[in-house]
Structure formats: C-alpha cells, structure tokens
Design goal:
Structural class: mainly alpha
Number of helices: 5
Radius of gyration: 16 Å
Number of domains: 1
Largest sheet: none
Helix content: over 70%
Distance between the termini: 30 Å
Number of strands: 0
Oligomer: single chain
C-alpha cells in the first residue's frame, strides 16, 4: 500500500500541473492537439502513472485470487486514511484502455 500512495501522490502533483497548463492554453485561446495530449500523457507516465497502475493491478490480482495475506492488508489501508476504492479507481482507466485494444 505504501507504493500505491507514494505514486498516487506523484501522479496527483503532475496532474495538477497539467491542468494548470491546459487552463493557461484555454485562456490564451489556444487549442490542444494530439501532440500536446501525448506529451501530457508521457509526463504522467514519467511521474509514476505506469508504476501506480502496475502496483494497483498486482494488489487487485492478489485480492482476486483470495490469497490469505490479503486479510492482513486491511488495517494499514484504513490507517492511511483511504480505502481499497482508491486502488480500484486507479485501475479502471488501465482496464478500459486494455479492453479498447481487444
């Protein structure tokens, strides 16, 4: 769970920066093109998005297989001030992208 929150924080920081840039572009009347969208996505990946999704995917996979160690992860999640919903919300975009490829 520590890795989840570490990379989630990093991605949130870059997301905030990207939203500011998008707002500035909009205020100047400039439109975003595909290249800019790609650049923003690459910046998110560089900031830790891929690692976050991978960590979350592994945790969900462990949870889905019913491993006995999952029951021990409950209290640390609650003490971090979050729920497993935080993990699943990060995996939804990844799952949707994978489904779109099929």
């Amino acid at each position: 769970m520590e890795l989840h929150f570490k990379y989630l924080d990093k991605v949130r920081v870059i997301d905030t920066e990207i939203e500011r840039e998008k707002h500035r572009l909009k205020m100047r009347g400039e439109e975003m093109d595909e290249d800019m969208e790609d650049e923003f996505y690459i910046r998110r990946l560089d900031a830790g998005l891929f690692t976050l999704q991978l960590v979350d995917y592994v945790m969900l996979e462990i949870s889905a297989t019913g491993a006995s160690t999952v029951s021990h992860s409950g209290p640390p999640v609650r003490t971090c001030g979050s729920h497993f919903k935080s993990v699943t919300s990060q995996c939804c975009p990844l799952c949707n992208a994978l489904q779109a490829r099929e």
